[in-house]
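Bug #2210: token dump truncated for Single-stranded DNA-binding protein?
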Amino acid sequence: MNKVILMGRLTRDPEVRYSQGERAMAIARYTLAVDRRGRRGGNGDDSAQTADFIPCVAFDRAGEFAEKYFHQGTKLVVTGRIQTGSYTNRDGQKVYTTEVIVEDQEFAESKNAASGNSDGGYRPAERPAPSSAIGDGFMNIPDGVEDEGLPFN
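Reproduced locally. Full output below:
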């Protein structure tokens, strides 16, 4: 089985090109910086953090979506498959490639969190006014409400 799931941030805006032919198809290429946690040898820093830079390719509608909504720094979750390949460059040297072919991509944080709002888009519900509560913290049940509709019966 060839399945990969990544979460990381875009290193730059996606590069999008369109295929030639009767039906032009978007091909978006982008790189995800994916955190790698590990131990560094000898310096006592157990929380050392580095990143792997994973090239990803999204086709067709996924490519169009990437072009429209993704930009440098966007945090994404990508699922797909790893594909390897090779080609000969202009100098006659064989170059090997590895990239993730995107099957699904989605935002990994809210727009508010991405813009620096530290609450991640969460807004706590407003509490009912104190006048609607009895002194022990429970709300009064209005007259006419049947007990069968309450969740604790």
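Output looks complete on our side. Strands lie at 4-10, 15-18, 26-37, 49-59, 75-88, 94-107. Marking as cannot-reproduce; reopen if the truncation happens again.
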